Amino acid sequence: MSPDGKDAQQQVWELRSASHTPPSTTTDDEFGSNGLERRNMLRMGKQQEMQRVFKQASLVSFPAILMGTWQWILLANSQGLIAGGRGGLFWSFIWTLVGYAFLAASLADMASMAPTAGGQYHWVSEFPPREYQQVLSYASGWLSALCWQAGNASGLFLCGTLIQSLISTKNPAYSAPAWQGWLLTIAMTAICAGFNIWGESFLPLMQKIFMPIYVAVCFATVGVIWALCPHVDAKTALLEFTDGGGWSSMGLVLMVGQISAIFALGGEYDRAHAW
Q1: Angstrom distance (rounded) from CA 264 to CA 81
Q2: Is the Transmembrane keyword given for this protein (predicted)?
Q3: Is 194 exposed, middle or buried (0-12, 13-18, 19+ CB in 10 A)?
Q4: Residue 26: how many CB atoms within 10 A of its CB?
């Protein structure tokens, strides 16, 4: 007998009935769940406990803006240019994109089977053999938490030091001391933490508002760079590989320089945490 007074046979009957009943996708309940979402929760044996604030449009906007691919490739391309050069940066971006596409397809497959918030550490606790679920989900959860901490620290640090770069552009005499960069990073952290604590209900709306602006600014930035920056021929841009770090082989050089592409393209799993 379950805590709500239903026996196993009744629960199975309800589950089978729900799986054969066309869901109503227009009516939301008190949690913001539509019929399809309620049916999926019943199918997985889960009970809705938190408010659903993200829908399809905001789920598309959320990872696109959070990944910030075109911004990060402008801000963090020095590693790829030093270890690989123009050609190395370009081709490492291409094969990293292909690799991430396979990863995204795998995540999408798991999300279709278990569409719940939580992401990898939840799926790892569900899909492996029972005897390995606990240890694998524990390892996956800690790896995810450490990645979040490192990723958030790097992004907030870049935001803080980017402010210093803007100040230096306006005032060339500004020396951009490291301690001020640290304070700006702490300020960015406080702003983000405060918004996530007290303003999370506005996040989906902001994502939908900023998405067209994000795309428009991307095209504007590309246009400005295309028009004003010096150009090189296609052979130099695509086939010039350089080793600025003194590594032993070009293969190793490209592996080291690939960090720029990985940093710019990482984050395709973000929407799995916002279901």
Answers
A1: 14
A2: yes
A3: exposed
A4: 7
- pLDDT-derived band at 27 (thresholds 50, 70, 90) equals low
Give the separation between CA 100 and CA 80, rounded to whole angstroms.
18
Sequence-distant (6+) residues with CB within 8 A of 126 are 114, 133
Q: Is the Cβ–Cβ distance between 90 and 242 less than 8 Å?
A: no
* Radius of gyration of the CA atoms of the chain, in A: 23
- SS3 per residue for 14-75: HHHHHHCCCCCCCCCCCCCCCHHHHHHHHHHCCCCCCCCCCCHHHHHHHHHHHHCHHHHHHH
Tell the residue number behind the tokens 């020396």, with chain if given. Answer: 175
Beta bridge partners of 107: none
Domain extents in the chain: 1-47, 58-273
Identify the pLDDT of residue 20: 47
Task: Please say whether the beta carbons of 176 and 167 come within 8 A.
Answer: yes
Q: What is the DSSP string of 157-215?
A: HHHHHHHHHHHHHH-TT----HHHHHHHHHHHHHHHHHHHHHSGGGHHHHHHHHHHHHH
What is the model's pLDDT at position 25?
52
Confidence of residue 56 (pLDDT cuts 50, 70, 90): confident
Residue 33 has pLDDT above 80, yes or no: no
